[in-house]
Amino acid sequence: MKALRKFVIPILLGMFLLILAACGGDDGDTTTAATQPPAAATQPPTVYSFQFACINRTLNPCKLIMKLADTLRARTNGQLDIQISSFPELGLAGPDTLRLLQDGTLDFGEIYGGYVGGDFP
């Protein structure tokens, strides 16, 4: 126990110095935030759009993705947009899913193992 006590003060002193170093000091920059134009006013926000292909809109995974898309759109102020389509809407067959995801035609999608069993065991 005595051996541990003699290390307490140096450890605390070292932690204090690390905290002080992390806080840093003034970098000498005299400009203030009030004099700089806001970045949002100079450029419009970038909108990222993705396409998700689900097997069928009535299935629970697709319903979950619909809620996720709405939540992401709301939390990112419309900057992240996920377009949801089903295989029948896009005229896709299940076995095509892997190829379309691989070549970038679809950004992400739902894959059923029975459809791609021969392509990707």
Description of the molecule:
There is one protein chain. By secondary structure, this protein is α/β, with parallel strands linked by helices. The chain is built from five helices and three strands. The chain has a three-stranded parallel beta sheet with strand order 2-1-3. The chain is elongated and about 70 Å long. 4% of the residues are buried.
Overview in brief:
By secondary structure, the protein is α/β, with parallel strands linked by helices.
Reading the helices and strands in chain order gives HHEHEHHE
Task: Indicate the percent of residues in helices.
Answer: 40-55%
Query: Can you count the helices?
Result: 5
Write down the overall mean pLDDT.
Answer: 78
Largest sheet strand order: 2-1-3
Tags for this model:
13% strand, alpha/beta, three-stranded parallel β-sheet, 121 residues, 3 strands
Layout of helices and strands, plus pairs?
Blueprint: H1 2-23, H2 39-42, E1 48-54, H3 60-75, E2 80-86, H4 87-90, H5 97-102, E3 108-109
Parallel strand pairs: 1-2, 1-3
